[in-house]
């Protein structure tokens, strides 16, 4: 890895590959370092349903994105507009007003252009009829604003990212955990990699840390979320253990956000301790708005039907 890299990206999920595509577009020589082996690549993104919340003015606005624009269901589909104002209002509602105003403005205004940019980078999109629509009087009616997903879900998302990145010249190295940052004064000028051949220093003009959180580290979960979270099952990868965050903080990065909260979900008690690469997100329990939830004493403990699933599942997952 002695090539003079312009950009090193640490991580191998959706965020890492988006950074890789952007750097390549700017003419950079890009090295992407993935902690996991090739057969376990993709970070948490691999385990998702591939849904992306984005903005659109209606069905005609989405059609150019779709992998199958001749789907006969489109003729009987109702897709209400989902505007940046709608997105911002949902963010405020779900977070009870605690979302960062500046970051939220970037998110809601850039979501639409980024989805179109990713289509140009080789990602294939579909309308998620199976997850986000009901048939009403013979027509498919979408609800909740979350209509668009990647073909092949999270598995397809990573496969398409890899194909596009490698075609653009991104070099991907697996089994390459980053264990330290190389610093020159206040600047980060490279990384130390603990690969199969031992430790190696790799330098670059810029380093992007896109290596996820600490959710697969029981000690970190207990420290930040509370001791009961030590026993939580992890929906995604076992490789997100927080090294990137710790290295960034040690280099002087600013802690930000709510470290006492997390993205949780109601999950099958019989699921394995980490993500299953065959079943991915299918251990989730999604039907609670049409059910009653009771605890081990047989008592209800939340309002199952307070809102659409899209707006309550992460909050209720944390309550469970």
Describe, in plain words, how this protein is organized in 3D:
By secondary structure, this protein is of the alpha/beta class. Helices cover 29% and strands 18% of the residues. The protein contains nine helices and twelve strands. A six-stranded mixed sheet has the order 9-2-1-12-11-10. Helix 1 packs parallel to helix 6 and helix 3 packs across helix 4. 32% of the residues are buried.
Structural class: alpha/beta
Number of helix segments?
9
Q: Strand count, sense and closure of the main sheet?
A: 6 strands, mixed
Give the percentage of residues in beta strands. Answer: 15-25%
Gyration radius, rounded: 21 Å
Helix content: 25-40%
Which spans of ≥5 residues are poorly predicted at pLDDT below 50?
none
Main β-sheet, spatial strand arrangement: 9-2-1-12-11-10
Overall morphology: globular
Mean pLDDT: 95
Span between termini: 46 Å
User: Order of helices and strands, N to C?
Assistant: EHEEHEHHEHEEEHEEEEHHH
The total strand number stands at 12
